[in-house]
Amino acid sequence: MKLKIGHLYPDVLEVYSDRGNVTVLQKRAEWRGIDVQVDRIGIGDDVNLAEYDLLFAGGGEDREQMRAAEDLLRKRDALLKAVASGTVVLAICGSYQLLGRYFETVNGHRIEGVGLLDLYTIGGRRRLTGNVVGKLTIFDFECTVVGYENHSGRTYLGSGAAPLATVVSGHGNNGEDGWEGVAQGTVFGTYLHGPVLAKNPLLADHLLRLALKRRTDRPHLPPLDDEWEWTAHERLVRRVAHMEAA
Ligand code: GLN
Predict the structure, then answer these.
(1) Contact 171 CB / ligand 1 (< 6 Å)
(2) What's the ipTM?
(3) Options 93, 171, 206, 233, the catalytic residue
(4) Which residues are named in the active-site annotation (predicted)?
(5) Ligand 1 centroid vs 3 CA: distance in angstroms?
(6) Is residue 246 included in any domain, yes or no?
(7) What is the pLDDT of residue 185?
(8) Domain count, the chain
């Protein structure tokens, strides 16, 4: 069995080492004896996105986002087809915004999104930055998610989209409604850098399990020794709690 991961725009959308998320997914699969192929997909590349079990894209400055957005619009049909076939998508910050209807930047440019997700984004003068702690909505047990955010865009979810997490500390999607990210079927968007999956192993395995479902009915992911991952996770939870109390 081989898991195919497509990394969209690795040269253009790459802030805060977002590519580390691909490494985390690859390693967590390989440690369970699953072969992984990672393909870089750049601007102008004509690929069948439905071949991929998981597509990843990182964040970027507004200007870089514009370049990626033009290409993503050309790949729109291929992306919709892939998602319809069960491909998992993880999009961080700038690329998360591009999966929605549009992003109106702080300078008044309107970047068209692919409209895969029921959301839109408006840029604000004050950037929303700092550590984030949230509670994931995707499990039937309580689990925190941690990361770091830095965005001018305020994202608002429509009724067709549900948040990935509720904000315990930090700004999340817009600093107003207490929501962070989006989880819509197999499509996930988040403002969290970090790289987010390094400190949130349950989220990483959730994505892997969904992606493997395209290959096998009952994906089996034996537990890993995640002591370092949880240590980093809990350290951030404690640091945030400590700063709030100060
Ligand atoms: N340029 C976008 C914003 O500022 C995304 C930033 C990012 O990906 N970190 O909102």
Answers:
(1) no
(2) 0.95
(3) 93
(4) 93 (nucleophile), 193
(5) 29
(6) no
(7) 95
(8) 1
Number of other residues whose CB lies within 10 A of the CB of residue 15? 15
With 90 as the cut, is the pLDDT of residue 75 above it?
A: yes
For residue 198, report the phi and psi dihedrals to the nearest 5 degrees.
Answer: -65, -35
Say how far apart CA 112 and CA 102 lie, in whole Å.
4
13 Cα to the center of ligand 1, angstroms: 10
- Record the pTM: 0.98
Write the CATH number for 70.
Answer: 3.40.50.880
Q: Is the pLDDT higher at 244 or at 36?
A: 36
Of 35, 61, 44, 62, which Cα lies nearest the Cα of 8? Answer: 44
Is residue 62 exposed (0-12), middle (13-18) or buried (19+ Cβ within 10 Å)?
middle
206 is catalytic: no
Helices and strands: H and E segment counts in the chain: 6, 12
Q: Is residue 124 part of a domain?
A: yes
Question: Which domain does 108 fall in, by range?
Answer: 2-241
Does 115 have pLDDT greater than 90? yes
Q: Could you tell me if residue 160 is inside a domain?
A: yes
Site of tokens 């991929």? 52
Enumerate residues 6+ apart whose C-beta is below 8 A from 182.
Answer: 96, 117, 119, 155, 157, 161, 162, 163, 164, 188, 189, 190
What pLDDT sits at residue 1?
82
Task: Report pLDDT digits (tens) over 90-112.
Answer: 999 999 999 999 999 999 999 99
Q: Is 143 a catalytic residue?
A: no
Residue pointed to by tokens 């040269």: 11
